[in-house]
Write a sequence for this structure.
């Protein structure tokens, strides 16, 4: 009896394992890129929101939206998915990879809820750019709020970064 029970248990375990493996392979859908039409529609929606808010947005050569706020250039990056939203401001950094720059970038990233600061290389070398970027999820319902939150997040992170750098270099 125990031998038959052990064989039955072994068969059940093999089938359970097979079912689990099958579920892992077949239950996850691959996240395919959204169609060009859908991405264009969402980008036009962002453009419309910015116009309504009084900005003068336009598309650049990469298909990103560019606009200015208080003399600073901002970008809404064209993504492969309609659910991804990124607004960016790029600052020039003339101080290179200075420890005060690192400290200010780190502090601003930690202090900001909706945006993060990153050191990047540019034409003028290592650490010559600072990207302030807000990555949010566009759920398709509150797109205007997402755009506003992204811009506010980036503006806040820029101001914290500049203030902290000023404090560190005094």
């Amino acid at each position: 009896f125990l031998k038959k029970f052990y064989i039955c248990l072994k068969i059940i375990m093999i089938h359970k394992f097979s079912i689990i493996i099958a579920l892992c392979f077949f239950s996850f859908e691959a996240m395919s890129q959204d169609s060009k039409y859908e991405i264009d529609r969402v980008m036009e929606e962002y453009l419309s929101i910015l116009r309504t808010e009084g900005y003068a947005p336009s598309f650049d050569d990469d298909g990103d939206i560019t606009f200015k706020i208080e003399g600073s250039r901002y970008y809404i990056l064209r993504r492969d998915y309609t659910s991804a939203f990124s607004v960016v401001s790029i600052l020039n950094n003339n101080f290179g990879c200075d420890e005060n720059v690192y400290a200010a970038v780190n502090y601003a990233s930690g202090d900001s809820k909706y945006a993060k600061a990153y050191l990047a290389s540019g034409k003028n070398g290592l650490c010559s750019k600072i990207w302030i970027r807000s990555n949010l999820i566009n759920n398709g319902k509150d797109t205007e709020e997402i755009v506003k939150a992204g811009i506010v997040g980036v503006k806040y992170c820029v101001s914290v970064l500049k203030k902290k750098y000023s404090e560190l270099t005094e």
About this structure: The mean pLDDT is 84. The longest strand covers residues 125-137. The longest helix spans residues 143-169. Strands lie at 58-59, 65-69, 72-76, 84-92, 116-122, 125-137.
